[in-house]
Amino acid sequence: MNVTKMSVRLAAVAGLALWTAALHPATATEAPADRGEYVARAGNCVACHSIADAPPFSGGLKMATPLGAIYTTNITPDAKTGIGGYTYEDFDRAVRLGIAKDGHRLYPAMPYPSYAKMNEEDMQALYGFFMKTVKAAEVANKPSEIPSPLNMRWPLAIWNFVFADDERYTPKAEHDAAWNRGAYLVQGLGHCGACHSPRGLAFNEKGYTEQDGQFLLGAPLDNWSASNLRQDINTGLGKWSQEDLVTYLKTGHNRYGTAFGTMTEVINNSTQYMTDDDVGAIATYLRAIPGGREKDANAFAYDASTAKDLLAREFAKPGALVYAQSCMTCHLADGAGHAPYLPPLAGNPVTVDPSPASLINIVLNGTQRIVVDGMPDAYKMPQYRVLLSDQEIADAVTFIRSGWGNKAAPVTAKEVADMRKLTDPASDQINILRMK
Which partner from 151, 213, 225, 360 sits 20 to 30 angstroms from 90, CA to CA? Predict the structure, then answer.
């Protein structure tokens, strides 16, 4: 695992674990009746605090950092190894301020700079869920692997002073209720910026609100590129309608794209359980954030010559033959795919992302199953790491990033080789988690 990956893994907290526990299809996407469970779903607490073959929320997820690995903690109500001895005030201070009951400071792998915005009602409900609904599990917390003296935590007080804000979200009078609810969910409870905002040298998010120019502008994440969520017309969500965003968050698919990487687990374990009003509020807020990339001003213009050459079996361009043999059946000669389940490649924000990481990773390793209403998708991207060489994948990805009017930088075989070393094929296991 390289330093960039380790650094981002420390800061990013959206789902990074795999789970295979059972889900009841009949109630798969019903919003939880328990308000606290709903808050836990919206906040995606399962992502870091659960691992396969262990009780829910008992911790143990290994998270690499430049200084050494840390492990997520047991947050079940077990009195010995969990948070059973936490008062509400202790819980609030840990979640919102990053300070444990005994006074030690949490690493910002815990997204407390975002959770600080949570309101009192949600915090009370979340505390009640963990204390009354989650089953206690005596699972010892694992010590960090950061060597002394680098494992001293007092410098985190300085980090918090410089980069963290402990103020709860305050509704903006100039915006309506939907916008404010969406801002609260995106900035705070949903902590979307933890993955989608660029990081500074101190691994701080470069902005926490729509007023910050780099907020949600996209960022590297565990050998993926977390997408730009601003209104940039080509590399962001500028073409997505309200319905497109709602459909994506509820199902993992829409006419422009399909969830992949960590976002698959967000769909499987979090957003599909949210109410239509809340998902609509998120969409309302995201659609109100202006674009942030100056080079993304000219809208994508489709070029039919790529399709013409493919249909004429003209494979002079590097990658054209690989595309025709391995990609065209699903994504078609015109790059239109079969939306919503087999996404288009022409004009897709992922294909023209300044970083090719996600496209390389998808071609190398395939994708995981999206599960909605308890039913796994019939379609998933296969992995080509065995069938294709580094050069063949580089050529195919370059062909996609420059075809049909796409205008993105080429990809080298070295980039593919580096990704191959750092990643594994996507598992066919269904990544859904028991909450209780």
Answer: 151
